[in-house]
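does this look right to u?? adenosine-5'-diphosphate version
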Amino acid sequence: MSSLKNFFYPKSICVAGASTKEKSIGYELLKTIKTYDYTGKVFPVNPKAEEILGYKCFRSIEEIDDPVDLAILVVPKQFAEASVDQLIQKKVKSIILITAGFKEIGKEGEELEKRVLEKIKNSGARMVGPNCMGIINTLDKSKLNATFVAEKPETGATGFLSQSGALGAAVLNSLRETDIKFAHFISVGNKADINETDILRFWQEDENIKTLTFYLESFVNGLDFVRPFMTGEILKPAIVLKAGRTKSGMKAASSHTGALGGEDKVVNALLDQFGIIRADNLNELFNTAKGFEYFPAPKGARVAVITNAGGPAILCVDSLEKEGLVLANFSDETKKSLREFVHPEGSVENPVDLLPGGTAETYKKAAGIAAEDENVDAVISIFVEPVMVSPFEVIEGISSLQCDKPVLQVVMPLPEFWNEYRKNSSKKLPLFRNPEDPAEVLSNILFYSSSQKRLAENREGYTSMLSLNKNINNYLNGFLPQSEISALCAKYGLPLVLNRIIDGSEVEKFEEAFYPLVLKGINKSVVHKSELNAVKLNVREKAELISAAEEIGRNFHDAGYEVENFLIQPFIKTKHELLIGGFRDPSFGPVLMFGSGGKYVEVFSDTCMKSAFLCDSDIEEMISGTSIGKILRGVRGEDPQDIKELKKIIVNCARMLIENENILEFDLNPLIAAQDGKYYAVDVRVKIK
Ligand code: ADP
Ligand code: MG
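got this back:
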């Protein structure tokens, strides 16, 4: 396995900065290691102590004769660098730097972090942190809890990475309430060396891990994170809770595409494209992980609901619709079987209402019958505890059903229940607390299955886009001039409308006969020409052309600009205005956008975004994912537009963005779908860095 194995499965660890003082991190960490029954050797290092918590103490790292698989540093910041030197000397290859006071505190800390990282890199070691909370491995062969959180997590098959130490601790502290079980927990802190992508790849290799969960505040490199999902290197479900949703809008947007982008939308679009589940909150993150770990995957979206109370069932049904699931239609046979024991006043239609008198036996029977119906893909049981029925038997009964469909249980019990349940809950299936939870879980699992299928079918498409040659052209910074745009469009087969570039003095001499035409005034600094009234449509003759040019000149002048050039184009008879745009996200790389175009794009914001590393089915989805795309396919008896040609233009735009690494942003707005059935890009902007 990769070089990260010793972080989770070390045979020996040294704790540099171990302390005899209770409540200090150096003491508490050692104590958790001990109380969690770590199976390997422990070497605390402290210059003054003989032993701590029964472990023999070493005066310095050099004094340890045995090999050290993993070093955990909790020394004060001023000793961190020297300790790293000693560890390197001792040829330790895995280091967790828990100590804080690095990049997160500013310039001085940043420099220290850089120095430490360089030393680590040069020695071939790897480092987790700094400013982190440590690692837990609950698996029997390791039993490592190198954190300073006293809670004892139980063994599961989920890996959980937290960028925030405090949030990680909060999750661990609430384990008794949430019943989350982990295989691995890692707090990555400042991510100076080891980051989410390293762990993602490590967990794919580690067969003990089934589901990968992440709490992230940033991606070190978003493209690196999603790429292995494109290529099929990651084949386990990954769920990401990414904080910072509200930080929207890209810096000063200099194009329509820029204004429609924004960090969070990019994260959303790309995680979605590559089958990575994005959770909205911790509850969804871990419920979904439980869903993957403990239940068979549903084959479809048809759900049976069994309840003993109306209100929660209604909330559950609402959540089904919200999550794109449906209430299953029971077969007559199912209804007949249910009728045999369901109270005459209860319902045998979906949702099945057993009324408060529903017993463990009727719950089990009803869930079993529903699960057997071929029109049902999943069952949700909702149990609101009435005084006369014990939830334990209901839970036991349903959990004992043998079937290959997921049966998810919501339990809304009396207050004492959870304490009691916890005492002997380790072997049982997880329960959900809110009637909306199961729908979220089921829909996430269905999303995962369908994405896996789509990704697998399109591997070739992705690899061919990933293998495009990338180069930097010697374009100048800023917006590409019209002449260069023409060349670029020609190279990538983009249907740029016929363009004549003339200067003011040439207007009177203009004799080419393509009236009716469009006259536009150009100045590099003017982003939206029509805002300055500098786009004159349907100019029918020479006299109109001359007066239009004069008017544009005046309009520019009044706004404090000069006309640098005029652009003359044929006036296209328009059916629809489209937009294809793209930009280079600093983290996720080239991103492409398709949607409604024209002057009002920001108002309609009818666009769909994908990584430019896209395959045919992604382009299909981009088109279907927008209202304008649906219209292009033909509504109300209208002839559809040439979708094949449009797809070609989209993929060529993607190639252009990928191959020319110094294109920062571009848009074709509008790309006109014309009455003659063809496409014309009448306004193309390309921003170069
Ligand atoms: P800007 O986006 O800078 O305001 P455009 O060149 O996109 O300027 O023109 C604005 C609008 O004018 C377009 O959205 C489109 O409706 C119309 N338009 C521009 N060029 C043409 C053309 N050649 N044929 C038909 N309509 C055009
Ligand atoms: Mg435009």
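DSSP finds 24 helices and 30 strands in the chain. idk if thats expected tbh
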